[in-house]
């Protein structure tokens, strides 16, 4: 069959129209996994690998598109099919991938205790529940999209993140996943958060916040961190589900180079991928330059925040 002769058995748009409750239910499962606090990059890696095992072209391409938008390292995407021998995956990622493969193939072989013991070593019970749900959900998607041969959502051209003046070849987007990386970010974060006091204090604060869902990302060039953003997904009665930006800072020696705009746009992309209805941040009333920057990028001042000490 040539490309020109290919046609889906049922088109995705027709399936969604005929059975809207089905994708809605599967998306609800996906949202539950996202809300669990598991790293989005990890779950996308699992979805990609399971889709490869099941031979679902639609889901492989769909999750490759998301992974690239998240800024995942190309070697991991290229080598996930041979993850055991690739040498680029962490122990946590390897345990999750082994668990995903075992669950996907459980009709052929029993899920052995050794695989479960390894995943227990890397994840707590709540995380294992979320991992298992993620694997079950992508298997369901694969069986629908693969059997009905939905057309793969191939992006036009090679994906490149929006750079807004940043030299894309020299700078890279990086997720800060360990304390060594976090400590490297301290000098720049201290330009914004003067009250931190020391690198050790920042590292301790980062560890506590990360346990509660805080994520730190950077735009870096070589060993130089050009811009930082800290954020978390929240939900309340005012905004619904939203991405709250705790921190956004550009190196004072590298202002007006488009780094802040580049990172803010990545945060907007991240918010959409995480199912957030909006992006929210706070800035001091005295930060006139910051106000102009946010207005230029489509953010509006919609409220005043009041704060005060708890002691009377």
TrEMBL record:
Q: Which UniProt keywords apply?
A: Transferase
Q: Does the keyword Transferase apply?
A: yes
Q: Where is the N-acetyltransferase domain?
A: 171-312
Q: Does the keyword Transferase apply?
A: yes
> Can you tell me where the transmembrane regions are?
none
Q: Which GO terms describe its molecular function?
A: acyltransferase activity, transferring groups other than amino-acyl groups; peroxiredoxin activity
InterPro entries, per the entry: Acyl_CoA_acyltransferase (IPR016181), AhpD-like (IPR029032), AhpD_core (IPR004675), CMD-like (IPR003779), GNAT_dom (IPR000182)
Q: Which NCBIfam families match?
A: ahpD_dom
Protein name (record): Aminoalkylphosphonic acid N-acetyltransferase
Organism (species): mine drainage metagenome
